[in-house]
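Model it.
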Amino acid sequence: MTELFYGIDKTSLDSMLHCIGAKTERVQKGEIILLAGGRPEYIGVVLAGQLHILREDYGGSRSLIAAITPGKIFAEALCCAGVAESPVTVIAHTDATVLLLPFRRIPSVCPNACAHHAKLIENMLRLTAEKNLLLQSRMEIISLKSVRAEVLRYLESFVPEQGRSIIVPFNREEMADYLCVERSALSHELAWMKRDGLIEYRKNCFVLKGD
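Modeled.
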C-alpha cells in the first residue's frame, strides 16, 4: 500500500489502524482535504487518485508545490512540526481515496502495546526526512539559471525509480507551475531539447536520451 506501513503484515496493520482510529475517506475532484490556515490534525495516505499541494501568495495566486500520488503521504511534516496553521492547501486533483491517521494517536504509547506501532513511527520519520530532501531538491531545481537546466534536473530526479523512461505527475501547465517558469517558455524549451536530441516526449511521458 505504502512505505509508511513497510514491515507491518496485513493482520497487524488492520489491528493497528483500528487502534489509532484511522479512517478512509473518498473525496471528489476539487475537494479540499486541508485548507491553508487550518490546523493539521491528520497524516494522510493517498490510496487512489491524486492530490495537489498548493501555496497561495498575498495576491491570491496559487503555486503548485507537489503532486501526491497513490502510496504517498502528506501533512506529516506539518503535524510533526506542530504548526497551528497550515501554510499550504491540499486539494483533490482527481477523485481520490485517502486514509487519514490522527497524528495525536501516533507518537503516544499504544494502549494495546501494539508491536508494530514503533515501526509505524520509524517509517514515518524516514519518509518525512526523504520528503524534506525532495523539497530541498526542488529548491535547487528552481534556482538554476536556465529552463533547460531546470527541466533536465527535474527529469533526472525520476531516474532512480523509473529509469530513463519517465512519467511525470503533471500536465504541461502544472509542470511549468512546479518549475516556476512560463508555460510558453517551457513548451519552447522542450521542443528545442527534443531537436537537440536530449529528450523525447509525448504529453507527460519523457525519455532521457544520450549518456
